[in-house]
Automatic annotation (TrEMBL):
GO CC terms: cytosolic large ribosomal subunit
Family assignment from sequence similarity: Belongs to the eukaryotic ribosomal protein eL37 family.
Protein keywords: Metal-binding, Ribonucleoprotein, Ribosomal protein, RNA-binding, rRNA-binding, Zinc, Zinc-finger
Segments forming a coiled coil: none
Record's protein name: 60S ribosomal protein L37
GO MF annotations in UniProt: RNA binding; rRNA binding; structural constituent of ribosome; zinc ion binding
UniProt organism field: Solanum lycopersicum (Tomato)
Amino acid sequence: MLFGIFNDINDSKGRVKKTHTLRVRCGRRSFHLQKSRCSACAYRPAHKRDTIGSQKKTTTTDHMRYLYNVPRRFLANFKEGTKAPPRKKGVFKE
């Protein structure tokens, strides 16, 4: 029945190596053979698994090391590789 899919069998262990195969609907190798379920588009139920990816299109609450420096670099027109001019020593005035 599904012998053509399970042709990567390790003879010494008797274990099937391939757990996922190509899914035609989403075009990814994420269709689980034993579960008969695609982990990318959730093939089998009527709905598609598309809301999970669209919820994560914003900046996170992580460290965001790159985005921390962007406003400061924007003020300098994203100049790189230049050396800062030396600070002038002045007299403190009140």
